[in-house]
Write a structure and sequence with these properties.
The chain has 179 residues and is of the alpha/beta class. The protein is built from three helices and ten strands, in the order ββαβαβββαββββ. Helix 1 crosses helix 2. Bound molecules: guanosine-5'-monophosphate.
Length: 179
């Protein structure tokens, strides 16, 4: 099935059923690894809203959730080097175990920025859970990236929280750009 968003056409790539199944696996792994602690999940808005909600339903632990808002794409197809901070973290993470929840890791610039920023606040630990990861595009070594839903090709994707110029976030499945 194809969808048109603004001027571009996208085709279905990961159906919701696969996302759901993988998210359940990630939730189980995280629940096991954080037994006996109360982690704080920090979602990076806007793209993470659906994944964070579904992931947390699969986490069987006492846990907290908070959000930050950053923008690096500015609505286009290409990643930009500049990162704008729109909403800062409202919780104190000092001495806490933090799981950063990302929709997608592309060049890794945003993640590098986030991990450095959170590390400066002296958490007990930081690990990253990203639904999608484009290994070919990655420009950094980020050992905190421990949980990955799907490794994908270096193609632009939308749906399940991810947008193209602010549209497409409400699509239930993930779609990739048709060339
Ligand atoms: P990075 O800093 O890793 O290059 O990019 C991270 C951010 O760029 C993500 O949080 C996301 O907002 C955006 N991004 C990267 N790749 C894609 C993509 O394929 N589709 C969409 N919609 N956003 C992307």
């Amino acid at each position: 099935m194809k969808v048109k968003i603004h001027d571009l056409e996208f085709e279905k790539m990961i159906p919701f059923e696969h996302i759901e199944q993988r998210t359940a696996e990630l939730g189980q792994t995280i629940s096991k690894e954080y037994q006996n602690s109360t982690p704080i999940f920090v979602g990076v808005l806007n793209g993470c809203f659906m994944f964070t909600a579904d992931l947390l339903k699969q986490v069987n632990l006492p846990c907290e959730v908070a959000f930050m808002k950053l923008s690096s794409y500015r609505g286009g197809l290409e990643s930009t080097r500049s990162i704008r901070e729109d909403l800062d973290l409202s919780v104190d993470i000092q001495g806490r175990h933090v799981v950063l929840v990302e929709d997608i890791v592309d060049t890794g610039n945003t993640l590098r920025y986030m991990v450095d920023k959170l590390n400066a606040l002296n958490p007990a630990s930081i690990k990253v859970c990203a639904l999608l990861y484009k290994p070919e595009a990655m420009e950094h070594d980020i050992p905190e990236l421990q949980y990955v839903g799907f490794e994908i090709e270096n193609k632009f994707v939308v749906g399940y929280g991810l947008d193209y110029k602010e549209l497409g976030r409400n699509l239930k499945d993930i779609y990739q750009l048709v060339k």
